[in-house]
Amino acid sequence: MEDLKQKIIEGAQGLFIQYGIRSVSMDDVARALSMSKKTLYQHFSNKNELVTVAVEDYMKGEMSEFSEIKDTSSNAIEELFNLSKCMREHVFKINPSMLYDLQKYHADAWAIFQRFKSDFLRRQVMDNINNGIKEGFYRPEVDPRVIAILRMETVQLAFNNDIFPRSEFNFLEVQVQLFEHFVHGLLSEKGKQLYTEYQSKAHNNDPIGS
């Protein structure tokens, strides 16, 4: 029974990420999973509940992945570089309308995302900045709390269609530009050298640390 519920959650996640949330109905979820709506409603009373559980499950996966990157990186720049690769992979898949749909139509799921952003992600960025300053890779005058908040808000900013209309801007490219701006605002001269080395290794498909 739990396996079936998880299958529904993961199937719904895939649809929401690809098409946005508002445009995906419970009929669409049932059809994509080759099951009846009756089966779907045995596990979730309505779409809002499914969205909330799917977002919570997705955030847990993100936390696990980001924590593993932090634990396996040898320094702050390697962590930042690996997080940027992870971000590119994830952002490329996400329909830009998803955050807007959450905020406008699914308050409980939006609250989960906001907690993930303000509690987990902000702390992750602050820890990275503090470590980078100690290692000499980031500028010592940077205020970790201010820059962590700025980073969180710029990530969300790229999802705003009023500011970056999809007709004029490539969503992934906007996120990449904002990330590069963030990184180069942090780096000391020592940090720039190491970050360039990581970029060169990635370009040559060499594993980091080799």
Number of domains: 1
Low-confidence stretches: none
Number of strands: 0
Total DSSP helices? 10
Proportion in helices: over 70%
CATH architectural group? Orthogonal Bundle
Report the CATH C-level class: Mainly Alpha
Mean pLDDT: 92
Distance between the termini: 45 Å
Q: The biggest beta sheet, please?
A: none
Q: In one word, what is the shape?
A: elongated
| CATH superfamily annotation | Tetracycline Repressor, domain 2
| Elements, N to C (H/E) | HHHHHHHHHH
Which structural class fits the helix and strand makeup?
Answer: mainly alpha
Q: Within the CATH hierarchy, at the fold level, what is the topology?
A: Tetracycline Repressor, domain 2
Percentage beta strand: under 5%
Radius of gyration: 19 Å
Word description of this protein:
There is one protein chain. This protein has 10 helices and no strands. It is an all-alpha fold and 210 residues long. The protein has a single domain, classed as Tetracycline Repressor, domain 2 (Orthogonal Bundle), CATH 1.10.357.10. The longest helix has 29 residues, at 107-135.
Question: How are the secondary structure elements laid out?
Answer:
Elements: H1 2-19, H2 26-32, H3 37-43, H4 47-72, H5 76-93, H6 97-105, H7 107-135, H8 144-157, H9 171-186, H10 189-203
Features:
single chain; elongated; Tetracycline Repressor, domain 2; mainly alpha; 210 residues
Short structural summary:
This protein has helices spanning 2-19, 26-32, 37-43, 47-72, 76-93, 97-105, 107-135, 144-157, 171-186, 189-203.
